[in-house]
Amino acid sequence: MSESPAALTVAGTTRYRSDDEDSGRWDGFVFRPGDIVISTRAKSGTTWMQMICALLVLQTPDLPEPLGTLSPWLDWLITPRDEVLARLEAQRHRRFIKTHTPLDGVPLAESVTYIVVGRHPLDLAVSLYHQSQNINRGRVRELTGQLAPDKPCLPRLPVREWLLAWIDSQAQPRERLDSLPGVMWHLSDAWVRPAQSGQPQVILVHYDDLCADLGGQMRALADLLGIEVPAARWPGLVRAATFDQMRSRAAEQAPDPAGVLKNPAAFFRRGRSGAGREVLTTGELAHYYARAARLAPPDLLAWLHGSVQDRLAQRASRAHPVMAG
User: Fold this and answer.
1) Looking at residue 33, what is its pLDDT?
2) Rounded to whole angstroms, how far apart are CA atoms 145 and 19?
3) How many CB atoms lie within 10 A of CB 35?
4) Dihedrals φ, ψ of 136, to 5°?
5) Which residues pair with 7 in a beta bridge?
6) Nearest to residue 228, comparing CAs of 95, 59, 48?
7) CATH code, 291
8) Strand locations in 162-285, DSSP E?
9) What is the pLDDT of residue 174?
10) How many independent structural domains does the chain possess?
11) Which domain holds residue 296?
């Protein structure tokens, strides 16, 4: 692959900022042809997709460096931007870069592939709920220069009450990306990206499809990325991408280069779907689906909420790649 850079600007992009992220760090970023950007909401399968890309690009389960080093998180304020850019510049393999920024907040280039992973929002939310207890907030404040809060934090709600409040959030999508409106905005923005000459390749992957057929999904993604994998290597690569294998190597694969997680293994908490639907009543689930219907287009919701078989049937009508089945 050629390593001559394709310089891009970020004119017209939305800037997203939080206590520990700033999409403005993409300003002036120089892509190489073939780069991969993994754009997800938190707890949607980000680290899983990073691992899959690492395995496909490097074609070995024995990664030469920790996953967070191989696939840096450009927007994260924990690591100085110059350090992240230097790391990416030094890489000689095909690069795969992590971001939690929607596609309207990162530069888009025809020569780059953007992978957006979707997960049932209720499962994502329950995972966020548990993940919040695993973050060392004092360490985050230390690394980002934030002051300690003036008032003690309120006791955390039980998961069901928290989830119901999350469903009813009226947050502005671009201001609270991990709210239900924010999750739907991130996916909706990717969903309507056109697949045509002069546009980047956008690939949508569903978390549940990875759970159902990891090997098939990895093969399909390799085809879309133009990566050839010798048949003899596939079993080892697929095995290395399983939840159990990743959890067993959490110290190397959890996104925690600065000691922000209290327990890296707890980052890989469950690895399957259904947690959100397990804690709500039938009426509460109906309320969620009614709320979701006001936040995203019907065809996206069919893809997001449907079964593997539903997504396989839907795939033929999409303008750009939606992996399913």
Assistant:
1) 96
2) 10
3) 21
4) -85, 95
5) 30
6) 59
7) 3.40.50.300
8) 201-206
9) 93
10) 1
11) 6-315
Whether the Cβ atoms of residue 276 and residue 163 lie closer than 8 Å to each other: yes
Residue 48: its H or E element: helix 46-58
The pLDDT value given to residue 246: 84
| Active-site position among 93, 100, 130, 287 | 100
Take residue 38 and report the two structure tokens written for it.
């993994």
100 classed as catalytic: yes
Give φ, ψ of 195 to 5 degrees. -105, 100
Q: Which amino acid is at 141?
A: R
Tokens of 145: 């220069």
pLDDT at 278: 86
CA separation for the pair 250, 261 (Å, rounded): 11
**Any idea which residue has 């996104």 for tokens?**
255
Phi-psi region of 237 (alpha: psi -120 to 50; beta: other; left: phi over 0): alpha
Give me the residues of the chain with pLDDT under 70, please: 1-12, 132-155, 195-198, 250-272, 315-325
Q: Is residue 26 part of a domain?
A: yes
For residue 239 the two structure tokens come to 């095995």
